[in-house]
Amino acid sequence: MANGGIKEQVLYVCELVKENQLNEAVGALQSVNTDDILCSSDLISLLISIEQTAFNLLQDCLNNVDKNTQSRLKYIEQVGLFNQSVATKNTNDKQQINVQIQVLLNVDILQNLVTIIDTLRTDDHFHRHDFVICLCIWLEAIAHFIHRHDNLVKELIEPLRQSVLSCVLSDWYQKYLTPSIETNIPARHFFIRTCSFVTGVLQCNQLSFENALKTIQSYKIVESIGQKIFDVRLADFHHYLFQLKDIENDRKCLTGICFLMTNCYNVKAFINNDEYFNLLLQLLKSDFVRKNLFSTWTNESTILADTLMVQLKNCSNEPSIRLYLQQNNAADAIHNYMHADYDRLRLQACMLLGVLLDDETMRQLKIPGDELTDLYFDAIRQAHQSSNKCYKRVPIHLLFRALSSLVHNQIIQASVATSTNYFDYLISMSDDYNLVYDIFWTLSFNTSLHEKFHSHKTFLQRLQTFVNDPESVLDKDIVRSAEGILWNLNHRNEKNTSPEQSTNVENKNTQLDKY
After folding, report:
1. Angle formed by the axes of helices 499-514 and 396-406, to 10°?
2. What is the DSSP-derived secondary structure letter of residue 189?
3. What's the pLDDT tens digit per position in 435-493?
4. What are the sequence ranges of the domains in the chain?
5. SUPFAM superfamilies attached here (predicted)?
6. Are 345 and 293 in contact (CB under 8 A)?
7. For an engineered disulfide with 201, which of 38, 39, 143, 306 has Cβ 3.0 to 4.6 Å away?
């Protein structure tokens, strides 16, 4: 049967489940290829019946713990693992995503999951029972899907989000976060790992700083929900992190906590906390994180590295934190992730380097300017071509902001100067993204790029129009950039200061303010 067609395999699992042959059903389900499942929308009703049976068994565990037989738990666990396999398949095909949604987010099951979660929060009678671990697998399967498609199912998962958020704010969370607590209690994994992880993922579209810049409304959500969590838990988070002695032995809980802290981003909570940022850098340098990276967001090391990189990138928008990272050689730890197999981790590392690097550091670390420039422009192109103007869930305006900082370096300016199309590409994007003018202002300090500027007469005429009629331009930063560009092109050679010296002086004076 294992070699039969996908429909025959799924029917066979259903038959075994119906006959209560759960051990056999586990083996049969293990042999089902989830790639085939995503291409078979006609199997949805059968798959939901498999899910529903597993969930009914899970729910029975609350009513009669004596029925927690190994065969039942093994079947529930295997369905959860099957869900995780479905959830972690990266696809942009709408039909396949619809299959994922129907398999993972059945309305009835979601409602009943909330009931179970609320029971665990209010009653510790079940905290030591193994079915709690099965529940964690199910919830984290949902979280993995939400992480990849956080804009699809907001209303559907709102009750679940509220339920796990309540767990994070509960007394049980604080109790299990204490370093002296027994670590192998199933409920500890549920509260500290799964609820942290799930809350963070389910809130990422609302709490992520990457999205906070889009609208005032989303920024208010960041402030209110993120601040609420930090008001209750920030001291507990710090105590846990600084008491942690062995990353690997508590890696799942550590990942959940770091991920939740990243999604509750509030820079005010981290200002002047040098010890905390030193800890984040030490985690990035650890062998556990560096040597166990996957090409997908599916294992602890990869999730933790990506999470830490995002948090450092978000916090680096604060000048004092950015200065601390620069003075403590953060680029030395981060540049190792430039070549990570996971593309989003690679992107986040390069964006953070764009904020921290100077020419001397690039030479010391032997960071190739052409390669770094190529990655930025490739990400911007893909974001511009996407319907939501994001690349790997990073909005294009943040990519431009990072590039506007990176181009202060002469090594990067040289890459733009020698490229056959980067300068022209920026010209073509200037109508759509105002930050491009800021980038051009920085580039205009480099006299080797002046010829490229002068070859674009229409663009220069547009700049002159901005200067002549500033009231016609809504964004006054564009006017200032236009004035600076034209002055550099027309008058900079009249100054006695050499271009290289002048560029270095301007860059040092504007680098922190302009990012």
Report:
1. 140
2. I
3. 999 999 999 999 999 999 999 999 999 999 999 999 888 888 999 999 999 999 988 65
4. 1-202
5. ARM repeat
6. yes
7. 143
